[in-house]
Amino acid sequence: AQSVTQLDSHVSVSEGTPVLLRCNYSSSYSPSLFWYVQHPNKGLQLLLKYTSAATLVKGINGFEAEFKKSETSFHLTKPSAHMSDAAEYFCVVTPFRGGKLIFGQGTELSVKP
Amino acid sequence: DTGVSQDPRHKITKRGQNVTFRCDPISEHNRLYWYRQTLGQGPEFLTYFQNEAQLEKSRLLSDRFSAERPKGSFSTLEIQRTEQGDSAMYLCASSLGVAGGSTDTQYFGPGTRLTVL
Questions:
Q1: B62-107 pLDDT, tens per residue?
Q2: Contact B45 A101 (CB under 8 A)
Q3: How far A88 CA lies from chain B's nearest CA (Å)?
Q4: A49 interaction partners in chain B (CB closer than 8 Å)
Q5: Beta strand residue intervals within chain B, DSSP E
Q6: B30, B61, B98, B106: best mutation site toward chain A, by most A Cβ within 10 Å?
Q7: Which residues does residue A78 pair with via DSSP β-bridges, in sequence order?
Q8: Vertex B8, ends B13 and B26: CA angle to 5°?
């Protein structure tokens, strides 16, 4: 079975400091992995996706994630947090090229001035 | 560029009533998905269409739930005899899937928030 575990339900950082949101996955297949962001009262937006090409994936708004097969991890990072980054972040896995997405529980990111 | 749209955005109903939601995908997208998100949780998959064919249904989709995509364009999700446990955000997503291609990206609509009293 495929699943993702987001290791922190809430992360708080100060503006201008690095962001690290942790995600571990479980998959019997070579997975595709995503990070989505959900701002309050807004729809889910794709940040980045990994589909077995380069292991370091760059996304929008300065975010990036590294696929580490040996650690079954896909952590999301950003060098410097902005206030506008405050939102809910979801790590997502899909075992097939087209099909359902399996979401983690989410990590709420707070950014302090 | 029009994204995925959903109607209504909010629905309040009494227990036992039927409700129907509509999703209009991005126009050229052949795949359409329904998810449900409850407070504090990640979205959970409900069902998936490729064109007009319903290819997969989750065990979450009880007999009271039915989804259609009659002409391979818009889709409807109906819940019959609503229960308080059906209160959630219902999300629709669409994607352009190409056979043998790379993993397609799902684009989400704003959701329909259902409250069952």
A1: 899 999 999 889 999 999 999 999 999 999 999 988 766 667 889 9
A2: yes
A3: 10
A4: 103, 105
A5: 5-7, 10-13, 19-24, 31-37, 44-50, 53-57, 65-68, 75-79, 88-95, 107-108, 112-116
A6: B106
A7: A19
A8: 145
What are B17's two structure tokens? 């009533």
B1 pLDDT above the threshold of 60: no
Residues of A in contact with B103 (CB under 8 A): 32, 49, 51, 94, 97-98
Distance of CA B7 to the CA centre of its chain: 11
* Nearest alpha-carbon partner for A101 in B105, B65, B24: B105
pLDDT band at A54 (very low <50, low <70, confident <90, very high): confident
Chain B residues within 8 Å of chain A (Cβ atoms): 3-4, 31, 33, 35, 40-45, 48, 50, 56, 58, 91, 93, 95, 97, 101-111
Across the interface, whether the CB atoms of A46 and B105 are under 8 A apart is answered yes
Residues in chain A: 113
Tokens of B60: 């979450």
Give the C-alpha separation, B109 to A111, whole Å.
26
Question: Three-state secondary structure along chain A?
Answer: CCEEEECCCEEEEECCCCEEECEEEECCCCCEEEEEEECCCCCEEEEEEECCCCCEEECHHHCEEEEECCCCEEEEEECCCCHHHCEEEEEEEECCCCCCCEECCCEEEEEEC
Contact A40, A101 (CB under 8 A): no
